[in-house]
Design a protein that fits this description.
157 residues; single chain; 4-stranded antiparallel beta sheet; alpha+beta; elongated
Length: 157
């Protein structure tokens, strides 16, 4: 999908305020409400916008610890990757998981209530994952930035 400056303005506004009404969004980007609604539908149908959500505070929910976990598998065969990825998706503490190039096969970000909770996740989930041969865990001391969006615009895309 080819995006123009109005599409970028819509995307930038939604990244800042996903709860903005269509009327306010239309006014902000200089469109009628119906034209804005059509553009929004097109952005959703094309996959540029793939969802809306509330950003929750892990700490406020009792998850005060973030672990960054590097995982090595016994091999990067398609079957091994698929089986590992299906299993990791079931772990409710996993916030993100990325297939990597380099020394480790995956980097995972995990939320835990405390060290004992992380130990439980490690024992019940991570060591039970198929094809895992090495787990390397590090613990975040402080979150400096956690963006949910990227810069959007013709000069930034």
């Amino acid at each position: 999908m080819s995006l123009d400056r109005i599409d970028y303005a819509i995307l930038d506004t939604l990244q800042r305020d996903g709860r903005i009404s269509n009327a306010a969004l239309a006014e902000k980007v200089g469109l009628s409400q119906s034209a804005c609604s059509r553009r929004l539908d097109n952005l959703e149908k094309s996959g540029v916008i793939h969802g809306y959500h509330a950003k929750l505070s892990n700490a406020a929910l009792g998850y005060r610890m973030t672990a960054i976990v590097h995982i090595s598998l016994s091999g990067q065969f398609e079957k091994s990757l698929a089986e590992f990825e299906a299993a990791i998706k079931r772990c409710p503490n996993v916030l993100s998981c990325h297939l990597m190039s380099g020394e480790y096969d995956y980097v995972i970000r995990i939320a835990a209530r405390d060290l004992e909770d992380y130990e439980r996740v490690h024992k019940e989930w991570l060591t039970a994952m198929p094809h895992v041969i090495k787990i390397n865990s590090s613990f975040a001391l402080r979150e400096v930035i956690d963006r949910t969006g990227v810069g959007v615009g013709p000069d930034l895309a």
